[in-house]
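Same chain as my last thread, 134 residues:
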Amino acid sequence: MRPIPVGAKGSYTLRVTPAHLANQFKDAALPPVFATPMMITTMENAALNAVRGYLDPGESAVGTTVNIRHLAATPVGHQVIAEAVVTKVDGRRIEFDVSARDEIEEIGNGTHERMVVEVGRLNQRLNAKARGKS
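reply #2:
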């Protein structure tokens, strides 16, 4: 991993489709609006995009903490743009300020943390765990 500068930015854009709605994730009685888990996904993707260029081959950055407020509803057809800004780097741990908005307003904000991992090593641990469960 190359040094990741505080202030590095990333974004991620998603057009809201029926598959992204709250009434698809929990209960059909929920309103047909952009689901919080999908908003968090856009924020996590923005954070990964902020640091992707600093990762070495075979590395990735996995989410470890999410602290998000969902502020406004977004209906189907709208575009959601999530942004992430690196606020702190402590070894392999990276902290971000994240936000999301649609064409009208900010729909969410908060903080997020990711940890840089070696994908091969993580896969070995997962395989060992899977064998231990059988």
